[in-house]
Amino acid sequence: MQLYPINAGNFKLDGGAMFGVVPKSLWQRTNPADNNNMIDIAARCLLIEDGNRLILVDTGMGNKQSDKFYGYYFLWGDDTIDKSLAKYGFHRDDITDVFMTHLHFDHCGGSIQWNKDKTGYEPAFKNAHFWSNTGHWQWATQPNRREKASFLKENILPMEDSGQLKFTSLPDDRILKDSQLGFDIFFADGHTDKQMIPMINYKGKTICFMADLLPTMGHLPLPFVMGYDTRPLLTLDEKEVFLNMAADQGFYLFLEHDAHHEIISVKHTEKGVRLNEIYTCKDIFN
User: Fold this and answer.
1) Quick one: what percent of the chain has pLDDT higher than 90?
2) Which of 144, 172, 278, 279 would disulfide-bridge 263, Cβ 3.0–4.6 Å?
3) CA distance 96 to 85
4) Residues 98, 59: contact at Cβ < 8 Å?
5) Burial (CB count within 10 angstroms: exposed 0-12, middle 13-18, buried 19+), residue 82
C-alpha cells in the first residue's frame, strides 16, 4: 500500500463559523484570520494505492459552480486534483473508488463535473465507484433547512444516475471493521449524520482521515467545535472518544482542512488530549 496527499485546492472560511462559540482571542492563536476574519482552509484529499485499487478520499469543491459561488470562499493557490494526481503519475481515469466522508459541497463537489457540452453533469471519475452510506445519503438527499445550502443536488444526484454509486455497511456501534474499501471506518453524527472517518492500517501505523471531526489542529480542545455542526454537543462526545483512542493507540491524524499542518499525533495531558507532534506527509508516507 502507498498513500499520497492530493490537494484539491485552498479557500477561506469565516473563523467565527469555524470555531463556533470559542472567542477569537483563543482560536486566532492557531488559526490567524485576515482583515475579513477569514482563515486559511485546505481541501487535502488522500489517495490510497492498494493492489489494483486506487481509492480517492474526498474530492474538494470541484470547478462547476459559478464565479459568484466561488467568490464567497476566496479561492487561493493553484492546486487542483489533476495536478496533484499527475505529480504522482496518476490520472483521474485511473481512480477505481471515490470514498466520500460526507456530501457537503467542499468534500464531494469534485466528484461530478459538467459534461462536454455543459448541458448536464457526469462523473468526474468515469471508472470509479462512489461510496457513501444509506443513512447519510438519505440525510443529504432530503436535507434539513440547516444544511440545505451545503448539500447541492448537482453534486449528489448524478452519482446515483450514473449507476456508479455504492454504499458501505453501517456499524453496530461506532466503528465499522474491515469495510468493503479495506479499512475501518469511524462513524460520527455531530457534524452531519453518518460522517465517515477512514482509519487506514499503513505499514504498522494507523492513519486517520479526520474530515470535519477535527478540521484543523486548532480544533483539538473539545469545546472548539465548528458552528457548522448540526449537533455540537454530540460532536463533543465523539471527539472525546476518538481523541482518547488516538492518544492511547498512537494514531496519526491526517488533517483535511488545515492549510498549514498535514498530519499530527496527540497525547494525554492534564488539560485533556493535546498536540504531541506535527508531521508532513513525507515524514509518515515515505
Assistant:
1) 97
2) 279
3) 13
4) yes
5) middle
What pLDDT score does 178 carry?
Answer: 87
Q: Which residues, in sequence order, are CB contacts of 66 under 8 Å at separation 6+?
A: none
Which tens digits make up the pLDDT trace of 45-104?
999 999 999 999 999 999 999 999 999 999 999 999 999 999 999 999 999 999 999 999
User: What crossing angle do the helices spanning 134-141 and 153-162 adopt, rounded to 10°?
Assistant: 130
Question: What are the cell numbers at 154?
Answer: 448537482
By the 8 A CB rule, do 6 and 84 touch?
A: yes
The three state secondary structure string of 239-274 is HHHHHHHHHHHCCEEECCCECCCCEEEEEEECCEEE
Dist CA 286 CA 281 (whole Å): 8
Q: How many helices (H) and strands (E) does the chain have?
A: 9, 15
How far apart CA 62 and CA 77 sit, in angstroms, is 14
User: How does pLDDT run across 137-164, given as a tens digit for each residue?
Assistant: 999 999 999 999 999 999 999 999 999 9
> Which residue shows C-alpha cell 472525546?
240
- Residue 13 forms beta bridges with which residues? 39
| Whole-structure pTM value | 0.96
> Contact at 8 Å (CB) between 115 and 122?
yes
